[in-house]
Amino acid sequence: MLELQRISVGSIDENCYIVWDTDTRHCVIFDPGADAPQIIRALSERKLTPDGILLTHAHFDHIGAVPALVKEYGIPVWCPPGDRALYSSPENCMPPWFSAVENLPALSEGAPMPFGYELLATPGHTPGSSAYYFPEQSFVLTGDTLFAGSVGRTDFPGGSESALRRSIQEVLFALPPSTIVYPGHGPRTTIGTEKMDPYFGQD
């Protein structure tokens, strides 16, 4: 059986997720944006062994704890191909509040594929934005593509509102309405709830 823990990290409350197998105690870390000690403490308290880090996209607020976690555990990091350049770009920042993340480890060429998730391409917030769908558990990690009652920004370099709309309407909204959405910021929601948002022209 799989379990999930959300950890709100950093000054803009980014959601880092830990997903683990309750039998093996092995886990994967999604989007560790900051506060590596807090994430390490959560893993220790649950006696979890991380197998890797998976990113929904490469914005600075989703990768800030990557260097410390890789140093601590020696685990691989995988980023969607469309965001690999963004991951290491010195322009991946928001001055004067946030600098580019330093000492980032090299990315793995292959994505760890534990627990039977499906990788869904959802470009728009960034060119490589992706979601991780767990069909057996009926939840999806959407990064900054879809939030509870909102959608991701598209005014950063590489963003596209039209692509974001297509990703949500054609990819995420194709999932069962009962699917739980775990977004990159804010509380969880469901696909069915978000399909009612007037932004998408639903009744």
Write the layout of secondary structure elements.
Elements: E1 2-9, E2 14-21, E3 26-30, H1 36-45, E4 49-54, H2 66-73, E5 77-78, H3 84-87, E6 118-121, E7 130-134, E8 139-143, E9 146-147, E10 150-151, H4 161-171, E11 180-183, E12 189-190, H5 191-194
Parallel strand pairs: 3-4, 4-5, 8-11
Antiparallel strand pairs: 1-2, 2-3, 6-7, 7-8, 9-10, 11-12
Question: If you had to describe this structure to a student in words, what would you say it looks like?
Answer:
With 203 residues, the chain is an alpha/beta fold. The protein has one domain (2-88, 114-200): Ribonuclease Z/Hydroxyacylglutathione hydrolase-like (Metallo-beta-lactamase, Chain A, 4-Layer Sandwich), CATH 3.60.15. 18% of the residues lie in helices and 26% in strands. It contains 5 helices and 12 strands. It has helices at 36-45, 66-73, 84-87, 161-171, 191-194; strands spanning 2-9, 14-21, 26-30, 49-54, 77-78, 118-121, 130-134, 139-143, 146-147, 150-151, 180-183, 189-190. Strands 1-2-3-4-5 form a 5-stranded mixed sheet. It has a 5-stranded mixed sheet with strand order 6-7-8-11-12. It has a two-stranded antiparallel ribbon with strand order 9-10. A hairpin with a 4-residue loop joins strand 1 and strand 2. The longest helix has 11 residues, at 161-171. The radius of gyration is 16 Å and the shape is globular. The termini are far apart. The model has no long low-confidence stretch (mean pLDDT 95).
